[in-house]
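## retry 2 of 3
previous attempt timed out at serialization; input unchanged, resubmitting
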Amino acid sequence: MFPLRDINPALRRPIAVLLILLINVGAWAIVQGLGQDQPLAQSLCEYALIPGELLRLAPVGTIIPVSQNFGCQLDGDASAWTLVTHMFLHGGWFHIIGNMWFLWVFGDNVEDVMGPVRFVGFYVLCGLAAAAAQIASDPTAAVPMVGASGAIGGVMGAYARLYPRTQVITLIFLGFYWTTVAVPAFAMLGYWFFIQLISGLPALGGASGGVAFWAHVGGFLAGLLLVGPMHRPDYLAQHARFAERRYFDSGPV
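## retry succeeded, writing output
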């Protein structure tokens, strides 16, 4: 299931969401060279999160292939800043487009009940929780981890708690056939979380792959928990009153 849009208008301009989008796109263009081989590989070596290197569990001198022509050589001098920098980098065009789309669909309504400053803090905390979950799943991993999906998983967890019954227009593929349906947010996001959880189980047995599923799980759970203390009750009540008026003015949608 792929979300196209939600039926949940925001009351405020999503300033923080737009800023995060611009930072991610700017990093993709300026730091990662729009996915060109050399700058992409260099960005992964310098700014990606590599659990085994960060925790000093991977042997110094280990060479990690990141493309056909380039590899990273671990020097034992990993920076803790990679816990933050990794969440603004991506591994390819589909990676960044997919992440930014999910952020755009679900982020505005979460920011709407927090305000931009709180939302930025919430986003970074969810990204850190996602990184911690991925590290815990395999502390010795020597695979560069990049992507905003852990932090965005937190946004999705918050959305599921705040707006569980909101309808999300979702694209569904059934073999060569596709269609769009409106499903409640808790169903669409619950299905996404279940897929991440099941897909991440093999990593607990030492199998590593190219997707940081446990970062997605950790980010989602962090979002579920953190949205409670970090949202503004007055903003949430204002949003609820607006939604109620809209419902009675136009009928169910």
